[in-house]
Amino acid sequence: MGKKRRREKERAAKAAAKAAKAEKRGGNKGGNKGGNKGGNKGGGKRAKGPAMVEGIPMPGRKSRDPFYQTIMPIQLELLKLQGQLKEDGEKMLVIVEGPSAAGKNALVERFMEFMMPRGVRATTIQPPNEVEAGQWYMQRFMNNLPVAGEFAFMIGSWYTRAWAETVSGGCTEAEADAFLNYIPAFERYLMDSGVKIFKIWLNISQEEQGIRLKELNSSDLLHWKMSQLDCDDPSKYDDHIAAKEKMVERTSTPAAPWITVNGDDEKAAQINAIQYFVSQFNYPEKKGGLLEYNTDVVFPAS
């Protein structure tokens, strides 16, 4: 009898403990709303983990922002693609050109946000210094080319000669014409050497450009981004676009075409540019439904 009573007591104790836990959970769910609103310091509900979208944790404001809910699964597809290209030892060069304030840096940052940092880098091309000005024009770009398994982004590129320098007087018309003659052959050589080239023209309307430049100029935090070229840009917008059209006509090839991304809506530009880019490649577990881009935002430049 003694053993039986001990077993009954143990069962009763376990049942009581289970009931107490159930009552505590019920109290937290049913009442204690004021305590939860006030901070629930007494220990009511346990904090939930971050919201998940396509298996991606999105803490804080990102879990409530439709932009992040849309773009993060697409960025995951980009990460899958990067992993496959890295495994295959591919070399990827992404060129991003466009007028001032179009959002080129922001676009590249969005591409790179969740990519593996050891397999990606970005370079913002600056005007040539005194030494570089005396070199072969293409010489200063060679160290920016990707190695096996790497993504290399160029924000601005050798194409600056074809549209920005032509308008600003940084090169003569003869120099620009010579550049446009040889650059398709140069890119063909790179591609024959295993480099994949992807060229984006990030477009922006003259009206939107004026608004953004005015905001930059009036911001104490962002004024440093302004340059004399930026100040001149609004008045030379039409000249830049005309030079760009000539550049695209002569350098957009079937193997390395120019793609236009409409940048007036910066978030839509970022979403659709990544969608289009990733959709052009095959890789394991690709979710094509996430990569259906808007053809009013991304379209052939020629």
Structural class: alpha/beta
Oligomer: single chain
Gyration radius from CA atoms, angstroms: 28 Å
Q: What's the story with the biggest beta sheet?
A: 6 strands, mixed
Mean of pLDDT = 85
Give, in spatial order, the strands making up the sheet with the most strands.
4-5-3-6-7-8
DSSP, total strands: 8
Tally of DSSP helical segments: 11
In percent, how much strand structure appears in the residues?
Answer: 5-15%
Helix content: 40-55%
Low-confidence region ranges: 22-43
Shape: globular
Number of domains: 1
Which architecture per CATH?
A: 3-Layer(aba) Sandwich
Question: Quick one: CATH class?
Answer: Alpha Beta
- Rounded to the nearest angstrom, the distance between the terminal CA atoms is 94 Å
* CATH fourth-tier homologous superfamily: P-loop containing nucleotide triphosphate hydrolases
Q: What is the CATH topology?
A: Rossmann fold
